[in-house]
Design a protein that fits this description.
Number of helices: 2
Oligomer: single chain
Radius of gyration: 14 Å
Helix content: 10-25%
């Protein structure tokens, strides 16, 4: 069922050991009714976005919101900037 969901929905899925997103975990959560498993269009780039909950440490915007994050992981600021524990901007969604 997962494979069909990926194919029919044109879902970005990387099956490698170093995938930057746990799409299988997202799918399991979606099928179980987990309210965190919701996707939406990101207003900054107009592309589909999946929650940080299932981002792996390989993702360029890995944050405290991931289930695998340590307390020192970067955090999102209200202005869509990812801020490191040292206060430096790691990523700015509004600048591409």
């Amino acid at each position: 069922m997962f494979q069909a969901w990926v194919k029919n929905g044109n879902i970005p899925f990387d099956p490698s050991q170093k995938a930057d997103y746990d799409m299988r975990g997202f799918y399991r959560a979606l099928m179980s009714g987990d309210p965190r498993a919701a996707n939406a269009v990101n207003p900054n780039d107009g592309m589909m976005h999946y929650p940080d909950t299932w981002k792996t440490p390989y993702h360029e915007t890995f944050s405290k919101e991931s289930q695998w994050a340590l307390p020192t992981a970067p955090a999102w600021a209200p202005d869509d900037k990812l801020i490191g524990s040292n206060g430096r901007i790691i990523y700015d969604e509004k600048v591409r």
